[in-house]
Specification:
Elements (H helix, E strand, L loop, with lengths): L1 E10 L2 E11 L4 E5 L6 H8 L7 E6 L2 E2 L8 H6 L1 E5 L10 H11 L7 H11 L15 H14 L4 E5 L7 H16 L3 E6 L2 H7 L2 E6 L2 E8 L10
Parallel strand pairs: 3-8, 3-9, 6-7, 7-8
Antiparallel strand pairs: 1-2, 1-4, 4-5, 9-10
Helix pairs in contact: 3-4, 3-5, 4-5
């Protein structure tokens, strides 16, 4: 699904990523952890083709992202839903309109907007706030808008860049539960976070970065579920 093969990226003399390799399969929920400056955001920007690697390959659904033509980049981004730490909602538009913008960008016929937006807002617990403006919402609700917008384009993978960074723990906890529900429905999620409580809560697979390098390779920390003997 998503494959990094010996990927490196530098900005002048600063090495952002060094020889990174990992695979993420369809339907996985993977955490990208590490302190600020570890390279997490650079890695996500490479997947979005906002940056090009200096060396190595990045494959999404068997296509080398770095080799895509300018015409193919919008097609790539239609496969990716993105949730940002700072929400990136349009303040002058209602929740419904914020989600509709994403549908317009990828060319979904306007006749399909209402049904799709209603479904996404209902899924994220915002069905009764469709006509609210961002200034009328809490931080947690704004992040749910961001997730609804990401899901509306029916992506094959969701990238979340520190989505709980601006939230208190109770709000962050409820948002993580929403991400888990989305993952159970089959969506692949790669979430960057340095929040230890979130990592401990999810008990999921962790790709850990430090100073642009993978620390100890890929780690699987998911707890085994004991089955009862019949």
């Amino acid at each position: 699904m998503l494959v990094f093969k010996n990927v490196s990226k530098s900005f002048g003399e600063v090495i952002a990523l060094s020889d990174i390799s990992f695979n993420i399969d369809d339907g996985e929920f993977v955490l990208l952890s590490g302190p600020s400056g570890a390279g997490k955001t650079t890695l996500l920007r490479l997947i979005l083709r906002q940056l090009l690697p200096d060396s190595g390959e990045i494959l999404l659904n068997d296509k080398d992202i770095a080799k895509l033509s300018e015409r193919e980049i919008p097609v790539l981004r239609k496969q990716i839903g993105v949730v940002f730490q700072d929400f990136k909602v349009l303040p002058e538009r209602t929740l419904r309109e914020n989600v509709e913008v994403a549908l317009a960008v990828i060319g979904v016929p306007e006749s399909e907007w209402k049904e799709r937006v209603d479904h996404m807002l209902s899924l994220t617990g915002l069905g009764n706030r469709a006509d609210f403006f961002p200034s009328q919402l809490s931080g947690g609700e704004l992040q749910r808008v961001s997730l609804a917008r990401a899901l509306s384009v029916n992506p094959s993978i969701i990238l979340a860049d520190e989505p709980t960074g601006n939230l208190d723990w109770d709000t962050a906890d409820s948002l993580i539960e929403l991400f888990e529900a989305v993952n159970r429905e089959g969506k692949t999620i790669l979430m960057a976070t340095h929040h230890k409580l979130i990592i401990d809560k999810l008990h999921g697979r962790v790709i850990e970065l430090k100073d642009g390098k993978m620390v100890g390779g890929e780690k699987v920390t998911r707890k085994k579920v004991k089955t009862k003997k019949k």
